[in-house]
Structures are given as C-alpha cells and as structure tokens.
C-alpha cells in the first residue's frame, strides 16, 4: 500500500520532471535561435557553440519524456500543454540577449535537476531516473555552462577592449593606447 508521503513525493516528482521537460524545450529553442542569429566578431564561434549545444537536446528531451510516460502516462507529455508552456516562458525573450538568457537558464536548469535528483533518490520504483538526471546535470554543467561562461567572459573582455580602443585612447599617444589595450586583455604591461 502506498502511503500519503509516497503519493506526495510522486506528485512532486511529476511536477519536477515536467519542469525539466519544459525547460529542455525552452533551452533547445534558445540555443537553436542563438545558432541562427549569431553575428558580430564572434559570429562563427557562437554559431558553432550554439549548434554543438542544441544538437544534444532532442535526445535529452526524448529520454526525459520516455521516463515521464512510463511513470505518469501519456498525458504528462501533452503537446498542447508543452506548447503553451514554451510560448509563455519564451514570450519576453529577445534575440538581442540570447547569450545572457541561455547562461541564466542553464544555471536555473541545473538547480532544477539537482532538486529532482534529490527527490528521485528518496523514492522507490524510479530505477535509473537519478542516473539519467545526473547525466543531464553533468552534461549541462560540464559543457553547456562552461562554454557559456567562457563566452560571456570573452564578451566582457571585448567590451573593455572596445571601450579602451575607442574612448580611452582618444587623446593618448599610440604607446598609451597599446598599454590600455594590453591591460584590457589581461597582459602585464611593463
């Protein structure tokens, strides 16, 4: 016989897995759009980074959806509910800030995964789910988040470089400009 605590955990697990499922769809569309809309000095590297990341999502979505169907039935992956969620979740997202949005959402996604892993570990009859979710967390933290943080870091350096080159050097000599440029890139200037 299933107790009230187990029923509550099952309900929480269903909600957690649905959040993960929806967030995977959101992230898939964010990275795919970032892939299409990359531009500027880092166009090609951003284009390839986004492609590398978004190509993993169909398998991740499929794996989570199959678990959801096995545990909670086909209604847990209802297309209308999923579409509504994705629309509402991404309605305010602009193509102008996709890199920042992707970074924020990856951090939130990893938190969702960690909470769901903890819940799954406390339950019976969800064999393999913790392993699946741990694999997702490792992939998203070890690769996606790492790549986004590296890219965000290089974008900050680029902003400093643009400021230094355009505004900070306006009245200085060539040597002063070179010094500012080198410092903005993290080089020691003698």
What would the keywords be for this entry?
190 residues; Ferritin; elongated
Could you characterize what this model shows?
The chain is an all-alpha fold. The chain has a single domain (4-155), classed as Ferritin, core subunit, four-helix bundle (Ferritin, Up-down Bundle), CATH 1.20.1260. The protein has seven helices and no strands. It has helices at residues 4-37, 43-54, 57-72, 79-90, 98-121, 129-168, 174-184. Helix 1 (4-37) runs antiparallel to helix 2, helix 1 (4-37) packs across helix 4 (79-90) and helix 1 (4-37) runs antiparallel to helix 5 (98-121). The termini are far apart. The model is unreliable at 157-168 (pLDDT under 50).
Ordered list of secondary-structure elements with their pairings:
Blueprint: H1 4-37, H2 43-54, H3 57-72, H4 79-90, H5 98-121, H6 129-168, H7 174-184
Helix pairs in contact: 1-2, 1-3, 1-4, 1-5, 3-6, 5-6, 6-7
